Amino acid sequence: MKKLAFIILMGSLVTSAFAKGIDITQSKETEQSVIVSLTPKPAFMDTDRNVTLEAVFNVLLDETSVQKNNIKLKKITENKESTVNGEVAYDAAKNAVTFKPSTLLTHGYYEVEFKSLKATKADKDQQIKEIKYRFYVPEVINGYKLPVEPDPAVNNATLLGVDSNDNGVRDDVERKIVIQYVKPIEIELMLSYVRKHQEMLTDPVGSAIESEKKMSKVIDCSLYLDDYGIRIDDMVSFTENNIYNTKERVKAYLDFNQALSGGVYGSGPADWNAKACDFDVEQMLKDRK
């Protein structure tokens, strides 16, 4: 494997685009015994834009307490809040209060509040306290739900960084891939290659040979796709420049290369086939026609 060449530019980090100031775990009275379920769940990070908010209780509610002003939804940023309009309803069969936004939600952080709800006289001893919690609607680009751009200080504090959706790709790198490469098959190829580098960072020296085999296999997949006119010329450089963006990650990559020193690695045309791809490449090739 070729040696890595880096120019690391040190400078101030621009943090205005990051939502590090919003605590999505902030909530109030979401664990009350009268609550059966909340939709979306508190601190949920994968809420659909077309969501209907719902609070289900184990007691019948006084329907006169289910009023529009008692259920509020706000979109929140670090600098402001804006109210989301919608329709409030009560389903007595389910003991469920619902809020249906008037329009599809845009990506970002939201806070929902259920207040002044009361049980019927038969259950008047069951108090329903004010409920408040937050959730997140992910940004969707090219059909992909993107994770939140992470706080650089947190993301760069460890070798592996932040991977909030646990798909093996660091959140900041995943966002760049989906935004830059656009085509689904190119995105899957890039995610696959980056994922192998991310795996390597868990043990740069001990797993060096196995990691090199996995990386080479993705290269074989890219060579197979080349016959279909799909070529990503900057696959290696993109990965190196974006995965290894701190001194610690650079050192880990150099240690990885050093561990491979003296070995012979690679493949031949016989390996350039669909089996080299760790995603359903044949179906994706059919879908693009």
Question: Can you characterise this structure?
Answer:
The chain is 28% helix and 18% strand. The chain is of the alpha+beta class and 289 residues long. The protein folds into 2 domains: 35-137, Immunoglobulin-like (Sandwich), CATH 2.60.40.1220; 144-287, no CATH class. The model is unreliable at 1-19 (pLDDT under 50).
Q: Structural class of the helix and strand makeup?
A: alpha+beta
Query: Which word captures the global form?
Result: elongated
Helices and strands, in order, run as: EEEEEEEEEEHHHHHHH
Count up the domains.
2
* Oligomer status: single chain
Sum this structure up briefly:
The chain is of the alpha+beta class.
Show the helix and strand layout.
Elements lengths: L34 E5 L13 E5 L13 E6 L4 E4 L1 E6 L4 E6 L6 E7 L16 E7 L1 E3 L2 E3 L5 H4 L15 H11 L2 H17 L7 H19 L8 H9 L3 H14 L20 H7 L2
Antiparallel strand pairs: 1-2, 2-6, 3-4, 3-7, 5-6, 7-8, 9-10
Helix pairs in contact: 2-3, 3-4, 3-5
